[in-house]
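Dear U.,

For the methods section draft, I wanted the exact inputs and outputs in one place so we can describe them consistently. I've listed the two proteins in the order they'll appear in the manuscript figures. Please don't edit the token lines directly; just add comments below if something needs changing.

First protein:
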Amino acid sequence: MTRIVFDKNLADLTDGVLEMGSMVEQAIQRAVLSLRERDVETAKEVIAQDDAIDTKRFELEDRIVELIATQQPMAQDLRTIVSLLHITSELERMGDYAEGIAKINVMMGEEPLLKPLIDIPRMSDLATGMLRGSLDALVERDVEAAKRVWRSDDEVDSLYDEVYKELLGFMIEDPKTITRATWLLWVAHDIERIADRATNIAERVVFLVTGRMVEASALR
């Protein structure tokens, strides 16, 4: 395989990862919007479409393994391929969290929301912004952009703490709200984990560019 063909294969793999990232971002947004609007049918669509995200992951992993096996890449090329492999795994888990939010919506059935959703959609917007930012950093090989994703995670964590305290207050004040408050806690936790996965992608970008694996918590 010539260098030109090899580079094209790498570019195609990166495009595939970006496509998967777009699928995941849409799933997160639709899951949270369907919850806010109590749209169970859209939630069911998000659940069904998770299979497509899983299929995309397996397709990309097969192509990555084939490229490693047939070309035995070294140094920077190997770091790129290994990073893409890890990123597909992180994206698939994000898709699972979106599916989990949609399943909570379905499980709630006709039950109304305990309260209007304010901080949870804000968390979702931040988390999807982190996802886009981490993938942009991947394309641009931009370490500083990756670090900005890391810093955004603190804001998501702060909002999660606010949601947790507020919902805990509901449960203490009126035990009858425990079930509905717990549903929203699960949603907030899933979004917090999505943000953590975006941070993991940003860490992989730094590894790809520098050859050093540094945890985000060490550099904030």
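Second protein (the one for the lower panel):
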Amino acid sequence: MKILITGSNGLLGQKLVYKLRNKASIQCIATARGENRLLQKEGYTYESLDITNAEQVKSVFSAYLPDVVINTAAMTNVDACETDREGAKLMNADSVKFQVEALEQLQKNHPGYRAHFIHLSTDFIFDGSKGPLDENETPHPLSYYAETKLQAEQTVIGSSLKWAIARTVLVYGIVDNMSRSNIVLWVKSNLEQGKTITVVDDQFRTPTLAEDLADGCILIAEKGATGIYNISGKDFYSILEMAHVVADYYKLDKSLIKAGKSEDIKQPAKRPPITGFIIDKAKRDLGYSPHSFTEGIQLLEAQLKAMGKA
């Protein structure tokens, strides 16, 4: 099975490549804009691909005729999307149209060829009035980021491809070059330095370990599953509760964590207050079985130690 991944330099992209690269039954094609930033270069093919360039998409897709495309590439900085709307639309919505159209054209040109398009989406397409949510919830975006992600979903659903949408929530994990932080590292690092942090207690999520999300995507690919799947963690917490779990795990001083409200944080984009996912469908159809949040922290800690960063 030929699986092509977009956004392979990103957090989820890296996890997917590392999980797929040595599978005998899978040919993994990793694609991202510019250079390959993964430390391990063996066991997969790398192609530079800018998914906002329709011609490049056509060219790379037709060179490989992938059985599966897992589209992880996106502009995920919610506030940046609010201010750079053109960039957000191009990266999150138009690029999906380019990929879908390229695969539909290949299916026309190659009788018998059928691509499985797996697209990553987000809990932010909901307004946050309730949660946790199942796959049948009606989207109602609050931010421009969410609007572009919903447009992409609509493109995928309206296509003639065999498709699946994997929606996720607050993904955390560690990338090769340690270029980005996450809720766990942020809380740990501040508390270790004795800094006081303010964490909102009015936003609720089901935090998702990047490895679990990668597993969910691979299960969709291997089972040829179609439709919408919630792929997230299983624990439902406020952001404040997450910070407390991290502090407890590392035996750090919880009194440094102060409760705050979303409205006190001046951010250009609105966040949904309550989301989080019900993952029963993914468990039942795919055999998806995510780590608990504490187990996820444990895995991150083992990775930090292996990198000599703990």
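Candidate sentences for the figure legend, describing the second protein: The first strand starts at residue 2 and ends at 6. The mean pLDDT is 97.

Thanks,
Y.
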